[in-house]
Design a protein that fits this description.
By secondary structure, the protein is mostly helical. Helices cover 55% and strands 0% of the residues.
């Protein structure tokens, strides 16, 4: 993450760890949280994240890949 935090695990585990440190999103489902991240990336970072996928695993993998692709985070 940009703040120096390092997350490890599967894509779902990484996205859940991101959700655990975010404020006000504890009641969101994983797809709802991913939508929240996409919206905030557009609003605050002016970055369009493309997060296709039908399952939680596919969506989480897409989000992590997009965050790396756009420079919102890096692969350790």
């Amino acid at each position: 993450m940009r703040d120096g935090r390092v997350f490890q695990g599967t894509a779902v585990q990484i996205v859940r760890a991101m959700q655990d440190i975010a404020f006000g999103v504890e009641r969101l489902s994983l797809p709802e949280y991913i939508d929240w991240v996409v919206t905030n990336a557009r609003r605050f970072d002016e970055v369009e994240l493309q997060v296709p996928g039908g399952t939680d695993e596919e969506m989480a993998a897409s989000l992590v890949a997009e965050m790396i692709r756009t420079g919102l985070t890096s692969k350790g």
